[in-house]
Predict the 3D structure of the following.
Amino acid sequence: MGTNAVVARNRFYYRCAGRYNGGLAACSASRYIQAEKAEAEVWGFVRDILTDPSRLTVGLEKMQENEASSASAEDEEASWLKRISKLERKEERLLELRLEGDISTEQFRVKSAALQEAKEAAATNLTAARSRRSRRKDFERDKEALLEYHARLVPEDLEHLTSEQRRTLYRMMRLTVLATPDGELIAEWGCNESTTPPGSFRTRGR
């Protein structure tokens, strides 16, 4: 969502950027959401999790499950590297055949295009495997940071966190806040890909 400010009234709102730029055809969400109210309710949701050891533990376990799918990322990465190397050797051999006159220009063009397409697909999969491996490392770091934070947590200190510190916590928790067309907010955490988050709340926007 984008932001909107009514300076004269010192009011700030969230709005659907798609609806704002493209109208009803782009998005049916017409309601503006009061920023102060939404941010307070989302923070209350996060604060309740951080001060409840059982909810925090369940959430972190769910995050662990969601990240487990990338456990073989290193093997997958090695496999795609091997695939790319094999395709490059085929390209070299194909060029040799063309220079030696063993295949026609048209045959070379067709086979070369097919090898290039296969290599691009392998490169795309390699990038995805590396991304999953990086995300898992980020999760492990964020998990430890959340546990350490909770171990030394003094609930009163939460009220004095800056906006930037709160955003850091949101990022580590993989917090997602969605707004429905009628202005209802849905906050989820655990993993953005999760369809059954370990905790969520809904609240009507204004």
Notes: Residues 18 and 43 are 25 Å apart (CA to CA).
